[in-house]
Amino acid sequence: MKSVKHWSDVIMRTVMVLNVNSMLERLHVQSVSDQLYLDESLDDYGEVVAEENDTLTYNNPVIDKVMEDSGVEGFRTLQLHYRRVRDDLECR
Q1: Distance between CA 89 and CA 50 in Å, rounded?
Q2: What band does 62 get if pLDDT is binned at 50, 70 and 90?
Q3: DSSP label at 37?
């Protein structure tokens, strides 16, 4: 005859599996819901978003200048340079 400990372990494993399945099902439902909301939002506000994406606005004139002169790659270079300078200052 199986012990009480054995059966409690079996029940706990079953409950844990059920909880994981329930969690995955809820995540799937939430994902579908989010996708529907996104699609509806793009239908309602797609033109506004497209207009906003056409204009580049930054709050920093240095970033504006870097983006105008050398684009995204220039901005990445600026970020890498900043990290190196910051790391050098932190080491001192």
Answers
A1: 41
A2: confident
A3: H
| CA–CA dist 76, 1 (Å, integer) | 68
CA angle at 48 for the pair 44 and 54, rounded to the nearest 5°: 145
27, 19 in Cβ contact below 8 A? no
Contact 21, 29 (CB under 8 A): no
Reference 60, options 78, 33, 39; nearest CA is 78
Ordered by start, the domain boundaries in the chain are 1-55, 57-92
Phi, psi angle pair for 52, to nearest 5°: -65, -35
CB atoms within 10 A of CB 64: 13
pTM: 0.37
pLDDT in tens, 2-42: 677 777 777 777 766 667 778 888 889 999 999 999 889 88
